[in-house]
Structure formats: C-alpha cells, structure tokens
Design brief:
By secondary structure, this protein is mainly alpha-helical. It is about 65% helix and about 0% strand. It has a domain of about 100 residues. The relative contact order is 0.10.
Amino acid sequence: MWLFLAFLSVPVIEIALFIQVGGAIGLWPTLGIVVLTAVLGTFLVRTQGALAMNNLRQSFGTLSDPSEPLAHGAMILVSGALLLTPGFFTDAVGFALLVPGVRSAVFRYLKSRINVQSFQMGGQPQQNPFQQRQGADIIDGEYEEVPRDPNAPPSGWTKH
C-alpha cells in the first residue's frame, strides 16, 4: 500500500513544486535549475560512486563485511536515478542520498529492520562425471595465503 502511495504522491508533489517555483521565478530559470541539478548530480554521483567502489574493494581486501559498502553503492545508484528524474522533490532526495552521513543513517535503519536467517555462498557443488567414474578423491586446486593482522577484529565472515 505504501508503494502505491509513493507512486501517487511523488508526481503530485513534483507538479505542485514546478507550479510554485515556475510561478515565482519563471519558466526558463526553472528549466535551467532542473538541467543544472541533473548535470551537477551526474558529477557528484560519479565521484561518490568511485569512493564507494574503493570502499568495497578495501572491504574485500581486508576480508571485512561488505554489506555497508554495497548498501552505499546501491543508495548512490538510486540517488543518480532520482537526480536524473526532472523535479525538485526527487532532486532533494537524490542530493540527500549523496551525503555519506545520510546514507549511514539509512543503512543503520535498514540494518535494524532486516533479520538475516541464513546465508549461503554458491549452490550445491557439481560433480564431475569423469571423476565419479574414476572414483578419485583428488581435488586439484591452487591457493594463495593471505596474511592477516593478528590485532585486527574478526571479519564477521566466519564464526570464531
């Protein structure tokens, strides 16, 4: 129900704001502001997106929980879509999502509302029919040992 209300109320709010702002400053300045916010938003989304990608790479490199950098990246993506949508209300929400403090607050709120009951990486391993016929228990693979700082807190990826 709330999604229906959002789809109904956002265009109504945008139209009302266009009428108010257009009546106060005129048509061309209003259109100029809409274009300017789209251009400025595109630039800010690119810079914030690059920072979010660096944070995600860093979390993978340190084997820490990547959920917050992923959430920040998703919110930046939504922000970009809102900033490219013409309108003052969507621009305000889009610019708000570009502020790291706002994204962190939204992430904390969503994290408190979501309860993860199970998590599994990948699916069931596929059996190689050739190995089944041979009856071999040999698994050929390569690995690279990643040094870990002994003073670092647990990553949260495994149970200790």
